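The records we work with from here on pair a chain with its fold. Here is one such record, which you should read through line by line:
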Amino acid sequence: MNLSRFLFLTVFILFQSLFAAAQDTLSLNKLIEKSQKVVEDYPFEKVYLHFDKPYYAVGDTIWFKAYVALAQDQPSDLSKVLYVDLISENDTLVRSMKLPIVNTSAYGSITLDPLAYKSGNYRIRAYTHWMINFSEDLYFTKNIPLGDAINRKIITNITLKGENPTNNPTINASIKFQDPDGTALANKKVNWQLISKFETIARGRETTDDTGKLALKLTASQKAALDTAILETSLEADASRIITSSFPLKNSFADVDLQFFPEGGDLIENLNTKIAFKAIQEKGLGISVKGDVVDNTGKIISKIEAQHLGMGSFTILPESGKTYSANLSFANGIKKTIPLPTAKKSGITISILTTTPTNIMVQINANQAYFNDHQDKNYYLVARSKGVIAFAAQAALNTTSIGAAIPKSKFPDGIIQITVFNTKGEPLAERLAFVKHTNVSSLNLTSDKKIYGIRQPVKMNVLAKTRNLPVEGNFSISVYNESKVPSNEDDDSSILSSFLISSELQGFIEKPNYYFHQINEKKAADLDLLMLTQGYRKFSYKDILAGKEPIIDFLPEQGIEFSGVLRTSNGMPVSNGSLKLVVPESRFYAETKSNVRGEFKFENVNIPDSMEASISARSPNAAKNMMIMLNGSAFPGIAKNKNKYEEKLNIDSLLLPYLDHSKRQYRMVTQMLQEVVVTSTVIKKPSHSDHPALSGLPSMPDHLINADRFQGCALFLSCLQTAAMGLTFADNNFFVTRVYNSGIRVPVQIFLNGMPIETNFLNSVQTADVDNVEIFLRDELGLVSRTYNTNGILVINTKKAVKGTAISAEDLKKLFPPSNVLTFKPQGYLKQREFYIPKYLTAESKTKGADFRTTVYWNPRVFTDANGTMAFEFYNSDNKGTYKAIVEGTDIEGNLSRFIYRYKVE
């Protein structure tokens, strides 16, 4: 049965009995109805990706499985297409993939080509078309540190310390340079420059000391300039070799902040209240803090001490006429005094206790002033889980304190939102809590041995149970050498932390998986602190009561589709036109007709990525005098990384054990790359300077977008709308953002290889043909702006043929394509690859070659049978050490589970 409908029916019956004698229940009944309507009409989807290991190196392949679920964690059949994007640390799209969702799951891989990827902090986000309607906070996102042992010419380690953030801000940087073998690069000349917002604000030349260290004092007129700056160094390794490195300086200053969160929402006079707090440093991570809470006379009222990641709590009884503040000492030495929220003279609040085994103990408290004004009035206690109201109760305020026990059995695993309402439906106090049931679902993994030899077979069995009964389920498993790929379980992500916490709460959550492994009383208390200090991200009751519903622009995709309009050359729509779609490589063929408005659509197109497709049109009336115009596809903008605080500064140093092993694994690739010698002349990149009409523009554009930014893009115009920095796309035109925001609507002039074009013409531009895009936000001389009565210039430069290459008949034909045929390379489904598992069956195979794999087994298709079991077999590599097997997933009811198993290879 559908979980949301079941919970709603339960609570509806409960309300019928509770409110039969109530006088004013209209608004609350509306609240229940509207809440249920939001859940049913606007179901949230969520996505989780399971990766084969926590981080990677250039040359590796990232293997992943996607689980798609509804807000109630039930496997979702709503969408049939998943998007997975790989984004660099400067918020640039590196790779975009489209995956078919089959049985609520999708599988994929990313090969980290040494010629295309470099060391850095990448992130992966995953979402469906339906999820674009809602906040990007709902997308799955995970940081992926990527090291480089193949192209690595140097190992760097930098420490940063900011000083004087308000006056004469300075960053003291200390960089240690080593060669790939760990030898200090002593007494080497280093040129450096400090770049902020594309401008060099400082530069110099220094020499490393005897230990390979370089000390720099970096200054700027404003702290913001240093926060956004990048330090670039060019070390002269020898007479013919210069090695360049770059370091972001963000979050270098040692500032701190602390926020107070009274339980229930408000601090109220003469009510004993728990106050949670969270202390964070400038890097966004929690920081330890101690201190005293004092009143306005200096009397110490309470002690403060963080218990986990800067979070803690204390109790206070605010007295009338007094104010309170906290004198704090942070772990980095900073001392601050921060005022507590001002206590309200009259109010009602809520406190809860979740430590009892079967119930959530709730206390509704009013101070005497509020009680005197509202005595005997009715109040409602409403609890919802994952958007669904699961419990409600009514009580009259005939005492200043009302107690209630809510059975935990009424809620699934996850976050509960408990709210107190008055009879007008106004929320007065609110508290989040977390429920985790034991023995609902479980996974177990066993092997035929605990200790193996190299290249020996490993036989494993999975057993899945729900409520102690075997169950069918959908799982994935990875097995990797933990000795070569060390990691902290707290820093990892899991299906539990993702679905139960990260997809439910707002903002950055530090180490969410900490709360789901080796659970004990302390971790349960720490999780309750997280509930007190983190915001809930679903729709608020105020929005629901006000009738504020999501704006839906995109429907759930059921497959790949191409839609557009068929017009004559003078722009008139062609009705009843015949259109054919052909994908020659995959032998796909489909036909459709245009309607009276010329609109057409091809649905459920099965096309692998980067394959060429063509649409041809015929009409008895228009003959070949027609234009096929494809609609663009929605592509979400790239927001700042909400998990940016977990980005690694010294990746090569932090991942050194893994990278040393990676270098050994890819030694042959490294040698091949180092032996490549380029003898041909460098081909000049096409630019605006190639065209006389644009010769008056500056030599350097304000923004340059290279072709790799559009990799995997189906329709060039759609991706350009996102990539065009400093421009806004509206009303089928590009505008300079700063001018557009001021109310002036003068469009940007677009050029394709020096020729002025209209925006619609970009629908026919093939992404694969684009070399770069130049953006000029100003036309200093005004030659273009005055000629075309525009503001700003957008130049698209296509790739040049190698000089001397004879043009073929096919290329010549492409210069004059028929108007009734459109050829393009859409973004199709990612081509599926299978994880390679060697078999060492013979004596010769057990000794031949070298096997340095760190991931020895990856299987995204672990489906347990009616007995809850599945068996599989694989072979170890040549690496000795401890191997870690992680299996996770969901049963057919949506119950989540995860299990970790270890064995040794000696």
